[in-house]
Amino acid sequence: MTNVVFTRTPDALILSCHGHACYAEYGKDIVCAGISALCMALAQGLRLMDEQGLLTEHFCEYSDGYFRAAVSGKQTAAVRTVFETVYAGLCAVQDEYPENISCRKENSKKGVKV
Predict the structure, then answer these.
(1) Residue 91 above 70 pLDDT?
(2) Distance CA 17, CA 88 (A)
(3) Which of 2, 12, 51, 72 is least surrounded by CB atoms within 10 angstroms?
(4) Domain annotation covers residue 114
(5) What's the structural domain count of the chain?
(6) What is the CATH number of the domain that holds 11?
(7) Nearest-angstrom CA–CA distance, 69 and 57
(8) What is the CA radius of gyration of the chain?
(9) How confident is the model at residue 112 (pLDDT cuts 50, 70, 90)?
(10) CA within 13 Å, CB half, 39
(11) 83: buried, middle or exposed (CB in 10 Å: 19+, 13-18, 0-12)?
């Protein structure tokens, strides 16, 4: 199962995914492909926003079965929107494939180190 956690704090947004969906064999897993496409869309959106000077501190890292993107500092509406949109897409995948992906949102009043 892929576990997704979207964390919002006063000074950071973090989206992390880990695990494999295990819907089908490696290379043919449509759930994993959907999750990966949404995560890569977030990564590209952050890259474009960085080029436009809309981000202060951020990072994006990924490997097989793992993705994590984070921004800290003051976020524009565009930054918040791209995170919320990708998370909503992941939740839509969860609605269709609840045995393969689990999404959770956390809100914290504490600061998080990015």
Answers:
(1) yes
(2) 14
(3) 51
(4) no
(5) 1
(6) 3.30.70.1490
(7) 11
(8) 14
(9) low
(10) 27
(11) buried
User: d(Cα 72, Cα 59) in Å, to the nearest integer?
Assistant: 9
Q: Residue 1, class by beta-carbon neighbours within 10 Å (0-12 exposed, 13-18 middle, 19+ buried)?
A: middle
Domain-located, residue 96: yes
Q: To which residue do tokens 């890569």 refer?
A: 40
pLDDT digits (tens, 9 = 90+) for 26-39: 889 999 999 999 99
Return phi, psi of residue 31, to 5°.
Answer: -70, -45
Q: Please list the alpha-helical segments (H only) found in 52-107.
A: 77-96
pLDDT of residue 111: 57
At 109, is the pLDDT very low, low, confident or very high (cuts 50, 70, 90)?
confident
Give the C-alpha separation, 98 to 74, whole Å: 34
